[in-house]
From TrEMBL:
<keyword id="KW-0805">Transcription regulation</keyword>
<dbReference type="InterPro" id="IPR000843">
    <property type="entry name" value="HTH_LacI"/>
</dbReference>
<dbReference type="Pfam" id="PF00356">
    <property type="entry name" value="LacI"/>
</dbReference>
<dbReference type="InterPro" id="IPR046335">
    <property type="entry name" value="LacI/GalR-like_sensor"/>
</dbReference>
<dbReference type="Pfam" id="PF13377">
    <property type="entry name" value="Peripla_BP_3"/>
</dbReference>
<dbReference type="GO" id="GO:0000976">
    <property type="term" value="F:transcription cis-regulatory region binding"/>
</dbReference>
<dbReference type="InterPro" id="IPR028082">
    <property type="entry name" value="Peripla_BP_I"/>
</dbReference>
<dbReference type="GO" id="GO:0003700">
    <property type="term" value="F:DNA-binding transcription factor activity"/>
</dbReference>
<keyword id="KW-0804">Transcription</keyword>
<feature type="domain" description="HTH lacI-type">
    <location>
        <begin position="12"/>
        <end position="66"/>
    </location>
</feature>
<dbReference type="InterPro" id="IPR010982">
    <property type="entry name" value="Lambda_DNA-bd_dom_sf"/>
</dbReference>
<keyword id="KW-0238">DNA-binding</keyword>
<protein>
    <submittedName>
        <fullName>LacI family DNA-binding transcriptional regulator</fullName>
    </submittedName>
</protein>
């Protein structure tokens, strides 16, 4: 069934989009395919024309046996996590003969909380992309509906919010990784262990928190709400959460950070107070990006296979575009504990 703006009206063409926007067909095509060389004001006109004409391909699997591009939308590319995932997507695309067209939401503080809009989904579908990969950006029900109606295969890496069962997601074994990190600290003799978390609605962040709680409870320790924080996956958030915990009458001797970026902030806050890591405070992260290897001291962390997640996402999009049904709608790749120099036994009092 085709998407039309009015009953009985034929599906709009690219020529009509160009005419409505007052641009050439070549310029409209550039906008649809995410190509450079078009002013933002012109892009806005083309996008508005797409929305007004409801210009989308017909539903169902794509007819082309060899899709040429996959559109990737990040919440932000201004962190090492995004660089690793993008590297995997590009590598996977190269193996499949598919080009990656990348985009990101605005990089202000509220970017992770802002959806990118149904109009953008329709624009991507109209470009003829094989599918859409969304990385740590929120998706609304309306946007998921738009993908389904346009026949646009959708894969989400590390969902920023809960998704329904029709959406394929790819991530790491975040719960198991949370258990691994916390058990490592428990095995070293720590009992007052803090958790510096990501956004409360983040699916991976919540899974890591649940793993942390499970490990504590299995060791007979009641999780202390005062030792559990939440914020953004950023160093500034990690520093703020750490300051709050270290101001407690009974502060933690170790902190599990829900990402390496958060862990950098934990280390910064400890350093400002003159604390020695790991003698006074053990710190463990999650991701194993370059941040973990080059901070001082080198960071003990939980490695998640970020590049592999990107490669799997690329392969999944191509399979969905070919009409294949995925074996699982929720793919989780194994995490590994990497022990470096930021954790040790607590100082004897």
């Amino acid at each position: 069934m085709q998407q039309t703006s009015e009953p009985g009206r034929p599906r709009a063409t690219l020529t009509e989009v160009a005419e409505r926007a007052g641009v050439s067909k070549a310029t409209a095509s550039k906008v649809l395919n995410g190509r450079p060389g078009v002013a933002e004001a012109t892009r806005r006109l083309v996008r508005e024309a797409i929305a007004e004409l409801d210009y989308v391909p017909s539903t169902g699997p794509r007819e082309s046996p060899a899709p040429q591009s996959i559109h990737v939308v990040f919440d932000t590319i201004l962190n090492m996590y995004a660089v690793y995932v993008l590297d995997g997507l590009i590598g996977g695309g190269r193996e499949l003969g598919v080009e990656m067209v990348t985009d990101s939401l605005e990089s202000e503080a509220t970017a992770q909380d802002r959806p990118f809009g149904v109009g953008r989904v329709k624009e991507i579908a109209a470009s003829g992309a094989a599918g859409l990969v969304v990385v740590t950006a929120q998706l609304t029900g309306e946007e998921m509906d738009a993908c389904e109606q346009a026949g646009l295969p959708l894969v989400v890496i590390d969902p920023a919010n809960p998704l329904d069962e029709r959406v394929t997601s790819i991530g790491a074994t975040n719960w198991a990784g949370g258990v691994q990190a916390t058990r490592h600290l428990l095995d070293l003799g720590h009992e007052r262990i803090g958790f510096a978390g990501g956004p409360a609605q983040s699916v991976p962040g919540r899974e890591r928190l649940h793993g942390y709680r499970e490990a504590l409870e299995s060791a007979g320790i009641d999780p202390d709400p005062a030792l559990m924080g939440s914020g953004r996956f950023e160093a500034e958030s990690g520093a703020a959460q750490t300051d709050a915990m270290l101001d407690l009458e009974n502060p933690p001797t170790a902190i599990f950070a829900a990402s390496d970026s958060i862990a950098v902030g934990v280390l910064r806050a400890a350093r400002r107070r003159g604390l020695d890591v790991p003698a006074d405070l053990s710190v463990i992260g999650f991701d194993d990006t370059y941040n973990a290897m080059w901070v001082e001291p080198p960071l003990t962390t939980v490695k998640q296979p970020l590049r592999q997640m990107g490669r799997v996402a690329a392969r999944t999009i191509v399979d969905l575009a070919a009409g294949k049904v995925p074996d699982s709608h929720h793919v989780q790749l194994a995490t590994t504990l990497v022990v470096r120099e930021s954790t040790s036994r607590p100082r004897a009092h």
